[in-house]
Design goal:
heterodimer, A: alpha/beta, Aspartate Aminotransferase, domain 1, Aspartate Aminotransferase, domain 2, 2 domains, four-stranded antiparallel beta sheet, 17 strands, B: alpha+beta, Sufe protein. Chain: A, three-stranded antiparallel beta sheet, about 15% strand
């Protein structure tokens, strides 16, 4: 398989990530679990530290200098996120705790106001629990009906009956990129189909937004959810993009301070967008951290991030297949251009816990389990998989280390 | 630094490769109980046949999981066959005591002396002693035991 040019040098980028210079069990850490959470560059760490050291104060309230500064910095970060995903207005950028909360916000706020018994919501078999459980909750609460887009043998969405599935549907909610299979879905095709059917579209961008360029106008999505911690930002911050007219019509999600205009003994009125959906003191430091992460990623260039990932994906798939042949099975599309750098695999019939235990001995960090996608695991016919995933700071030597450690695991458990 | 040999003793690998008491039992009269490891990826299904005296007349295990959870389940099944609920309760406490060295070390214990339940013979189960050096895997080892306790509770209710 030809390996395309890699515009980034992961080895050089590693230097900007303090954690990646630490040792584990006496060996340099090989971090291959960015699909679970990403490492943070100094720029992000410094931005958050700087906030707490110099301007920490509550936002939208104070008349004093540092309060104004904090408010400014937070709204600048919001504008950065807006530009990062090509949204038209900052009123369309809602800060949440994480993508799970973003998805719950849409399901509960838009869902409760617009869905009734018998209404259809279309999901897919590859969804993360965050895009399944809230809908199950609405099934119980309202009596909505769920339909599922199935998968083909390559782990791609089987769109043969898409229009049939969407007939009469109110919602299509799917992931742009699977956190298990790495499959990158044809989002525009999906949102167009939803629009034709009269359904709104919700896109789970947790894996896609950090790993490739995102433009919500091109995606055609009504809502997009993603988390800061998977894109070099801190934990505790997520984003919900929603089209302004939809957000305007939705009732608030959480109630409290910030999201109101007026509160009386007999009622309240809501604040303008986006603050209508941001109750209470926001995670100010985390928002600023996310803004710094966006700035850092824009400096690297999201086209470069994607090109780097394609090159690493090609290297990973050819290396693992050359070294292990039939002993390894990587789930998801075999074409590197159809997938991101997330690799769930079966190896030597070993259980993922045992694989990751031996890998840990070699300081290689991979994930073991069902990756919050139990329905998908069942369809794949496995209880759990081991999963390695790459990001900007990984390079080919990380993949070589993974392969060496897998070799060691195979030898240790040889029957 | 604990090595892999501390975790994966030969006996454990033997029980993993040749698990005892695999299969199912007809329910009723047997009782079926399922358990899931919070460290996701291990699932166990136990089939328990308790006789009139409250002894485990038969036990079967199915489900899938890692070498630690599967070998612990296999060893557990061999250890509890024919035992009374009271004896199983004692055995479970002794096993969990062996698994809880980490907690006492966290509380600032000077030595890593195991908390012993001296009268109870753990036999093959001693091989799992090394699991405490890998705290994340303790839940793998205790899965079968927690599921067993739940099953006994449900069956004797």
């Amino acid at each position: 398989m030809a390996v395309s040019t890699d515009p980034l040098d992961g080895t050089v980028l590693k230097d900007q990530f303090p954690l990646l210079s630490r040792n584990v069990h006496g060996k340099p850490i090989i971090y291959l679990d960015s699909a679970a959470t990403s490492q943070k560059p100094l720029a992000v760490l410094n931005a958050m530290d700087e906030y707490y050291r110099t301007i920490n104060s509550n936002v939208h309230r104070g008349v004093y200098l540092i309060a104004e500064e904090a408010t400014n910095q937070m709204e600048i970060a919001r504008d950065r996120v807006r530009d990062f995903i090509g949204a038209r207005s900052s009123a369309e950028i809602i800060f949440t705790k994480n993508a799970t909360e973003s998805l719950n916000l849409v399901a509960m706020s838009w869902g409760r106001a617009n869905l009734s018994a018998g209404d259809v919501v279309v999901l897919s078999h590859m969804e993360h629990h965050a895009n399944i459980v809230p809908w199950h909750m609405l099934v119980a609460e309202i009596g909505i009906e769920l339909r599922w887009i199935p998968l083909d043998t390559e782990g791609r969405l089987d769109l043969t009956d898409l229009d049939v599935l969407l007939e009469g549907a109110k919602v299509l909610s799917v992931t742009a990129m699977s956190n298990v299979l790495g499959t990158m879905n044809p989002v525009r095709t999906l949102t167009d189909a939803a629009r034709r059917a009269g359904a709104i579209s919700i896109i789970d961008g947790c894996q896609s937004v950090p790993h490739s360029p995102t433009n919500v106008q091109e995606l055609g999505a009504d809502f997009l959810a993603f988390s800061g911690h998977k894109m070099c930002g801190p934990t505790g911050i997520g984003v919900l993009f929603g089209r302004e007219e939809l957000l305007e019509a939705m009732p608030p999600f959480l109630g409290g301070g910030e999201m109101i205009r007026d509160v009386r003994l007999d009622g309240f009125t809501t604040n303008d967008l986006p603050w209508k959906f941001e109750a209470g003191t926001p995670p100010i430091a985390e928002i600023i951290g996310l803004g710094a992460a966006v700035e850092w990623l824009q400096g690297v260039g999201m086209d470069n991030v994607r090109a780097h990932e394609i090159a690493l994906t090609q290297y990973t798939m050819s290396t693992l297949s050359e070294r292990f042949g039939d002993r390894i099975r990587i789930h998801g599309p075999s074409n590197p251009l159809e997938r991101g750098g997330v690799f769930s695999f079966d190896f030597d019939g070993l259980h993922p816990h045992d694989i990751s235990q031996v890998l840990d001995e070699h300081a290689v960090c991979v994930r073991a389990g069902h990756h919050c996608a139990k329905p998908l695991m069942k369809i794949l016919g496995v209880g759990a998989t081991a999963r390695a995933s790459v990001y900007v700071y990984n390079d080919t030597s990380d993949i070589d280390a993974l392969a060496d450690a897998l070799e060691a695991a195979g030898a240790f458990f040889a029957f | 630094m604990p090595g892999l040999e501390d975790l994966y003793r030969e006996i454990i690998l033997d029980h993993y490769r040749n698990p005892r008491n695999r299969g199912e039992l007809e329910t009723p009269p047997a009782h079926r109980v399922e358990g899931f490891n919070p460290l996701c990826g291990d699932e166990i299904v136990l089939f328990l046949d308790l006789d009139a005296d409250g002894r485990v007349a038969d036990i079967r295990i199915s489900g899938q999981g890692c070498s630690i959870s599967q070998s612990s389940a296999s060893m557990m099944s061999a250890a509890v066959k024919g035992k009374s609920i009271a004896e199983i309760d004692e055995l479970t406490r002794a096993f969990k005591a062996m698994m809880s060295i980490h907690e006492s070390a966290l509380e600032g214990a000077e030595t890593s002396e195991p908390v012993e339940v001296p009268e109870v013979k753990l036999g093959d189960l001693e091989a799992l002693r090394g699991v405490v050096k890998f705290p994340v895997r303790i839940k793998c080892a205790t899965l079968a035991w927690n599921t067993l306790a739940q099953g006994i509770d449900e069956a004797s209710a």
